[in-house]
Please model this.
Amino acid sequence: MQPLPKWADLVLVPLISLALAFFVAALVILAIGESPWFALKTMVQGSLMTASGWGHTLYYTTSFIFTGLAVSVAFHAGLFNIGGEGQAQLGGLGVALACLYIPWPHWSLALLGATIAAAAFGAAWVAIPAWLQAKRGSHIVITTIMFNYIAASVLMFMLVDVLRPIGQQDPSSARFPAEVLIPRLNQIPGLDLLFPRTVPANITLFLALTAAVLVWLLLWHSRTGYHIRAFGKSPGAARYAGISATRITMIALLISGALAGMMSVNNVLGDAQRLLGNSAAGAGFIGIAVALMGRNHPVGVILAAFLFGFIFQGGSELGFMTAIPIEMRVVIQGLVILFTGALDMMVRMGLERVFPRAANPAKPTTAGAA
Amino acid sequence: MTTDVTGRKAGGPGGINPPASFAHAAAPTPAAPTPAAPVPAAIELRGISKSFGPVRANEDISFFVPKGTIHGIIGENGAGKSTLMSILYGFYRADQGEIVIHGRPAALPDSQAAIRAGIGMVFQHFKLVQNFTVLENIILGAEDGPRLARSLARARKTLADLSREYELEVDPDALVEDLSVGHQQRVEILKALYRDADILILDEPTGVLTPAEADHLFRILRGLRDQGKTILLITHKLREIMEVTDNVSVMRRGRLIDTVATAKTSPAALAELMVGRKVLLNVGKSPATPGETVLSVENLSLSDEQKVERLRSVSLTLRRGEILGIAGVAGNGQSELLSILGGMTRPGEKVSGHVTMGGQPLPITGKAANGKARREAGIAHVPEDRHHHGLILDFTAWENVALGYDDDPRYGRGMLLDNGALREDAARKMQTWDVRPPIHTLAAKNFSGGNQQKIVLAREIEQDPTVLLIGQPTRGVDIGAIEFIHKQIVALRDQGKAILLVSVELDEIMSLSDRIAVMFDGRIMDILDPAQTDEAAIGSLMAGIHPAEGRPAGETPPATSGEA
Amino acid sequence: MDYASILQLLDSTIRLSTPLLLACLAGLWSERAGIFDIGLEGKMLAAAMASATVASLTAAAPGWSLFGIELTWAKSLLSPVIWGLIAGILASVIFALIHGVASITFRGNQLISGFALNFIAAGLTVLVAQRVFGQGGRTPQLAGDARFPPLTLPLSDEIREIPGIGPLWYEVISGHAILVYVAFAIVPLTWWLMYRTRYGLRLRAVGENPAAVDTAGISVIRLRYSALIITGILCGIAGAYMSTALQAGFGRDMTAGRGYIALAALIFAKWRPVAALWSCLLFGFFQALALRPDIVTAVVQFRVPGPILDSLPYILTVLVLAGFIGKATPPRAGGEPYTKER
Model:
């Protein structure tokens, strides 16, 4: 079978998959008796046409960049980390503990401390599944699913029995002290002109973008990244080359867990300013869609995270402004994962018919030059 | 092209042709022979063509197999043999042409149709369910009804008859995963016979067998032929063709070159037909001038994850400026030897023994026994399986040039890789080694087998190693590249490198090696001087028989069970 | 702890094990055929919604018509809860078939497909329920013939007074919805089909080595689709049980991870039907315990936080996966799409 040109595989396949997902979503909206066009208009209006909309969209984007990168790094090592949700929740616990129990003199140090704590807790939560995968061959997908549920229990226990202030009803921690609170975008000089009112998006956005650059450097310009990709593409060749499978499995998954955990800096410290139940709110799972859509490349991940930020903010706008329930965004998310992650072959087979078979068999490409 | 067989009476069956003698066979014997042929044809192909995209796998293939004969189909890898067999077994539909089975044109849209037409297939890679019993494997797809009990009972009885009749003993209640390879193959043959196949196709059946097991297989095949079965034997080994077939068809590049009676041809003539020109079996090389010993191996043993001993107390030495060839049937410990020396053992494998290099002990267990440490010690390794080990097919050529040398200071600083330096290095190596196309940004999977092998060789040899381990250097490599690669190996020897060469191609071992170690069942049977030995002597050592003693060595696999 | 508490605990163990068992057997069928299915959760959810919706609508409507065709006779033919069950099974089978298209026909990633379908189900169920009933994604409370009534087994009243066995029979064994007994009967049925019939032999073979089945002239694709349909039916029953027997109506995300616990139970049972029964009873027992923290406290003499009990099935499964409690070997061809080799 003649392979598709690289650019078609990289750009066309995800775009067509996305179009199909949106097409089916439109059918769903039609089926429940609403207008897809009006829904789309509402989504765009609510997420991209106002400062507040942008503030929310970028807030979600920040979280999704982290979880998307988390899934991507593991994917490059041939590992499917489905446990971003649990790792993010544990990251949130790390942020809360760091902010509540350490007297930070300034928010910048608190941000640093919270980031390290979030990364450490996220990495720690994937460490057991990672070790079981590396040493005992326990399937990482199943163990990380199990650890998501265990994480939910741990968090519930911590919030109800440990962190909840005396006399408080709802299961959440105390508010963080004012010294640790990091600036929102409307509090940053310069950006405050764009965002006149309080928005959830905060300085963590830049942390996320930095993380994307670092992941890019790691994967394509470092020896460790080479090892991760080599192991992911061919475990046999990695063994031949003397790359330790145990070491790379651990490294890739720990980085992945750390990235997932770091998303909690955005929502726990940056917005909620205390630890709430179910703090990750599904962002860990959306990371999977983001990574699939972004083809596991940091640039793709940033674009896809923005897309999902739009879907998320637009979706909640749908819930407010129309009769379409907010769950519509869960459906869209599921459809995007289905079409980009599981039905990609269908799209590719369709495209292979469109592209002329005779097209140059071995054309030089910019493969791997990323 | 087919006429020289169709008109001739096949030498095989002679007068013994008693189809009535087997109780289980319900298949109708064909009554009407094709008008063109005096001997009834079991299979006749007329103008079969098949393309995969731009690749023409089979082109206008026509031949004729008389009933009750063993018909060989020989050709190099990629000559189109397997495609042809897949068409016969209903896996693929031919683009053009006609298949005639027992005088009737047969449409074979799927395997079920092929089975109904009386065709049974023994694949190179067995199609058995590992955790099923022999009996369950045999009835799978040929059950008598929706409930299993009756099918199993009938199969048990039929199996007993078949086993007795054809020397095909196998325990019906054994799990397939517990059987030896030879026995698993018998299960495949029994599967076909249970389905009343009277045409049996075997695809490279001896690739995984020891010589003794192969001999037993040939006895079984002759027995089947004498009972009136027709057998198609696909192979690239001349010896088998000469030993067991009645007629042979030669394929080359998707075309059927000729069909001849085996008795009227010779191995040399067939070889020439296969490759299309006289084969150069001898590489021009001067006698070796070996220097000091660089690598010495003592009592090296390895047990795999299932605690099966794969390597048993192997000792050898390797000197500068010589090529030590390891001969043997695949799976007799050569791969394990390379794997230990190359630092590729798996965590579950247990290794013992001593290896020293230049007088220093070389770790063979633990974390220090890895590919990187080996390279640092001066051992380069061209692995047997370049698709799974030697290359990362999805990586570009330049990325592959770093494989194993990715921690080298030349390719970067500290934790970072210098991609520019790597690309330059790759471009230069591809130039020197005449890799085509010379595009280092192309993914490895887009190069031909020979060019892929050149990339691996370039990478390993240009690191200027002291010791070079080479496994199957020319497997899947086109003829032109074979000569090039052979010359490079000899040139390397002349530069004073110590070379350990593993190959299942005896010709390759004979023509390149300065000394030959023969392996069987994890042991080194003997180490010989190629000038003072011949293929026959090596062949019997490969079969585990010391010429002097004339009996099989050690507790040998169950291959001999039929000989008593 | 008194005998009555034990009986109560066992009674709710059986109630809570039933959906796990049905989903677990559902997973067994597809995974034994070589298709990983982490979409059990979504199928149950879809079925729960469809069942409750159809049961509720049928029960409430005075007459019945579809596209103007009078169908009231259909309503009198079967009770609303049975129509609900049928609708649940259909919904679940449709999800199973989508999984089939993605993972069999288009050879996509089975894990991702199942995962995506869980999301689609989670959102879609709320969307549909909201559209139909406008009650925030819930169905109305079901009552009367829109629910499966408890079944009183014979002899219940007669032997009730016999100490020991009488209350056990009356409290624990008797008095469940018919689907509970159906679920337990499906265990031996599954075993028999798997190990004693031609279909089972072929199905197990296709999960181990599809090439063996293909070369025997049997369609791998058809076998795998058939297994997925069985998976769909069983998940459909599980979902219908959730919303029309265990509870009285559908609420958003009402399956609450049971599909994943069932998956855990399947691994714990090492993909064997009878062992699946025991592991589902065990995990159901944990769920029952989590509902009665007072009993736990009484037994161990200190307060065990509820979340810890909740996570026990998951922790146990991890231990199994790690090989600390026996070794779980999944079907060899599991998760791998089958491609004919050249």
Observations:
- Chain A touches chain B at residues 1-2, 217, 220-227, 229-230, 233-234, 236-237, 239-244, 357-358, 362, 364-369 (CB under 8 Å).
